[in-house]
């Protein structure tokens, strides 16, 4: 039993991050939960059993009452069945704890202090509903059709020694064709970009060659030479349009290579990022401007002068749509379009920052710098986690959907696994390409890494890089034109406004903890006046010389004195109350101390 | 070396023939669906906007009366039948699905003051200014037959309202006094009086069927038990109550439409203070009717609008008006909880949707799903300021808009004055009286 040996090596269940990012070993053929229980006696698999048991216990806690009822029912049922057989699997099938954990959105709500029955009922109902949804989603997880790829060496064989050719030979033909080289020596080095579905590839040679390819069928969609230097290329929301940052300005082309727009507001762009849910194209320029273009309406949303010099290191956090910029002084800054100042400024390296990458859950940031170090940060807590030294330093970093990190040093690509949880000494896969690496990206939903270099483009096979199961409503690699159009309409309808970009993307769903003062301010703004404001005393005009300056002043003083007296009276009352309370407590204490306990007689 | 690389068979993901539906594999992993909250918020915002776009509540106008519509009655068995009585003594029976009048009869001389359908749905009663109670058959008379009432009872005084018992052949009328009648007899079984006044409406409790409520012109609401000889108790308010209506689900609550522009929901057991004051009308409220679910009620007002209130909210969730609708005199909520019927001064009966943005007709399952999803989203994000602003916005006729502002200013002024009086008098001598307590003068047992 080969599979048996692997299960013992499985990652510990307690650490979810490991499970998510880890390239899992080959799984056992799907086993029914009852078979597992039966087999347990001969082949004891400790971990699995623990998990399921835990899950059962947890379920017990949640539905204590229902369970009780069920148990009593079971007892009576057992007696009633004539054949003497009882249901060997009573109740719903257990769900393993970490699978449930994957779908949990929030912790339990705090209990209310005061008795607010309506609210309480509402909260319990919604919690029940969300729990049910969580369980259903976890159960559905079993039905997902595909499993992630993996690569394992034999005894005393390093996976990093396995060459791409060997991998391509070992796998099936269709997967084998995904390893290929495009020899484009004339216009390199190349930048690469995969579309969100992973079907389409965009190549931008720095000497003006732009090509887009349906790379799986190897069908060329368009190929143009823009006759200018190309700094960066990026797909927009669908494979119908892409943006090219050229020598001076930013251009938008369609998939036939026809120039749609030349945007002169965006000049000297070096790097671009596309925020798919916001329909924003973020550009970083040589003039140290960070600009946001709303591609759905064609308006510039924000232009921020970062005042940090040439911006050629950029990445986005896919979890919260914050843009990360790396600077020559070793800092990484975080930006949102709503603020002219950086949200966060982190000192990451001693030398300049060469590359930044953020994983898809928005937990980890990997940076590499001129100090030949590669560092991993927890960007929720802004804490350094790991620091590695790469002898030549990494010029290009890229993270895959399942957390594989590829670092390019010169013309060597090294792919690492698990850089944040365990200290890594050896790469998972290494490969040497023909020229210096200029751009690289993991293809979404495929085990493929695209590398653009001085000598063209190389598509590498990295087993375990891509997410095996895509969501058809979000990004479907196999969608038809009709489905794409449908998706486009839906996506545009739920375009998130740029004002909603913030460090915590769930902030909108939390209870508004606005203090009374804040709410009051809102009210003042809405009404145009302060309804609770104390009106300023204006002495009435009196006739017969009684409104002389002196008398007005006197009257004002009178009112002021009255107000002050009110305040004093109130404070005195408060003090009296406090004093009374204190006395009461003291009395109680003294009473308690005066009482003799039965144990006091043993005291010396 | 053991290796596996993702390699999907396109046949598993693409439909086989053109005639199949597209395959949509799902993966509910939250990490594949970033920005959940903001996307839901955007969807909720869109749903709220669309709700306002689709809010077209007016369905039809039933015209045919030659004078103002004074009273209406729902058929107890048939959803599509409505009866209406007008100020010229005419009674019309309507078919609501066809929007047409199926029968007209001259029931009384002078106003038809009240009408009610018997619980079995085979006959109905009308009372009028001619001091008579008439019982009519529900079916139209055959060809060549005269339109004649089954029974006619001549009373001593004018009757102003009528209601029928839920299960037995007993009905109650009001006028100078509240009378309980047996259908078989020509004189009342029981008469209730409490002081000298006239009553404007009487209603049987739908659950405790022996209880009745009525409102009198001496500003009081009186409760009776049919089995006792004397009334139970009454609450006297600052202004006169026009109509009362019992909550059909929680029948210890009743709501009364008051002359002071407000509606008051009372708990029958504690009349000292109303449970809720419903404000928003800018003129006297003339009629009120509960939805069959008991969650909401609709009110008709002299200010030419109809408002829908949740039973436990102080302000209305919806206001209906048209340019041509005059003072709304009577209102009914249909028994399927979907429609509202209003009868007004300018001789028309209007049919409205109870839920303004609801799509009528048969919904496909996808439509239904989408509606439910949008409803839930709207509920979830209802307190966000932008969404709330859009959801609450209603167009009001200019006159009502100004009147509303004026009333608000008056109220604010009154409150300010009270505050100042309290400030300048001996502490405790001017107690704080809540809005609920203000309206009740006394409770008499």
TrEMBL record, chain A:
Coiled coil ranges: none
Protein name, as recorded: WD repeat-containing protein 46
Q: Where are the WD repeats?
A: 346-387
Stretches for region Disordered: 1-115, 543-604
One short Pfam name that applies is WD40
CC per GO annotation: 90S preribosome; small-subunit processome
Where does the BING4 C-terminal domain lie? 427-505
Subunit record text:
Part of the small subunit (SSU) processome, composed of more than 70 proteins and the RNA chaperone small nucleolar RNA (snoRNA) U3. Interacts with DDX21, NCL, NOP2 and EBNA1BP2.
One of the GO BP terms on file: maturation of SSU-rRNA from tricistronic rRNA transcript (SSU-rRNA, 5.8S rRNA, LSU-rRNA)
User: Which segments show compositional bias classed as Basic and acidic residues?
Assistant: 35-49, 71-81, 559-590
Q: What does this protein do?
A: Scaffold component of the nucleolar structure. Required for localization of DDX21 and NCL to the granular compartment of the nucleolus. Part of the small subunit (SSU) processome, first precursor of the small eukaryotic ribosomal subunit. During the assembly of the SSU processome in the nucleolus, many ribosome biogenesis factors, an RNA chaperone and ribosomal proteins associate with the nascent pre-rRNA and work in concert to generate RNA folding, modifications, rearrangements and cleavage as well as targeted degradation of pre-ribosomal RNA by the RNA exosome.
Q: Which domain of life is it from?
A: Eukaryota
Residue ranges annotated as compositionally biased, kind Polar residues, are: 1-10
Please state the protein's primary subcellular location.
Answer: nucleus
The UniProt keywords, alphabetically, are: Nucleus, Phosphoprotein, Repeat, WD repeat
Q: What is its subcellular localisation?
A: Nucleus, Nucleolus
Is S-adenosyl-L-methionine among this UniProt entry's keywords? Answer: no
Automatic annotation (TrEMBL), chain B:
Name of the molecule in the record: DDB1- and CUL4-associated factor 13
Task: Cite a GO CC annotation.
Answer: small-subunit processome
> Can the keyword Nucleus be found in this entry's annotation?
yes
Report the sequence similarity comment from the record.
Answer: Belongs to the WD repeat DCAF13/WDSOF1 family.
For the region Disordered, give the residue spans: 413-439
Q: In which pathway does it act?
A: Protein modification; protein ubiquitination
Question: Which keywords annotate this record?
Answer: Nucleus, Repeat, Ribonucleoprotein, Ribosome biogenesis, rRNA processing, Ubl conjugation pathway, WD repeat
- Compartments where located: Nucleus, Nucleolus
Is this entry keyworded Transport? no
Q: Where is the Sof1-like protein domain?
A: 354-440
Q: Which domain of life is it from?
A: Eukaryota
WD repeat locations: 62-104, 278-309, 321-362
Q: Which organism is it from?
A: Austrofundulus limnaeus
- GO MF annotation list: ubiquitin-like ligase-substrate adaptor activity
Its main localization is nucleus
Bias regions of kind Basic residues — which residues? 413-426
